[in-house]
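Subject: mismatched residue count in predicted assembly?

I count 226 residues in my input, but I want to confirm that the predicted structure covers every chain. Input:
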Amino acid sequence: QQPVQSPQAVILREGEDAVINCSSSKALYSVHWYRQKHGEAPVFLMILLKGGEQKGHEKISASFNEKKQQSSLYLTASQLSYSGTYFCGTGHSSNTGKLIFGQGTTLQVKP
Amino acid sequence: DTGVSQNPRHKITKRGQNVTFRCDPISEHNRLYWYRQTLGQGPEFLTYFQNEAQLEKSRLLSDRFSAERPKGSFSTLEIQRTEQGDSAMYLCASSFSGTVQETQYFGPGTRLLVL
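Triage response: the counts match. Full output below for your records.
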């Protein structure tokens, strides 16, 4: 039931773009994206609810495809500060706040 | 708003000992979650509370693990008879369930090492 993230790792140069995917085998109610730097707590980026919406946060945006049961995180014109591990957490019901997290995608941005 | 806090930040114990961790959520948040994270993996759900009620507990959670939130504010997670496999980062998160876009905010975690 754990969502599958792809790719597992990506290396970018500053200014390049990246896409991180999150696929679930179970019907999705919500998708939550977090970034975690080594030794630190996960930091919330954005939440998407079922309805196929897309959200943006500066140069980071995400989409949610309810039919395909997947979400994608788009990182545009990457900065050094974007380096870290990105996790998607999936919610499968409006009755519970429980999230199931993917295994993570490690992003390294080089100068 | 001081964020979610957890104590201690690090704990080293010997196999067979009991340990207890504390989590203080963001003050207006009514939900509190416990997750466990091992190296290279995403957070794994353990249990969560709404106010003082424990609403869900992972089926993977051993009966050596118990959590409480007696007054609907802070929470404690106790592990009895620790095993080396319990070594992990234990993360606490809190949220407010009164909004459609319920967001969980994580604390800094307690890193447990069982020798």
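Chain B has no helices and eleven strands. Marking this ticket as 'not a bug'.
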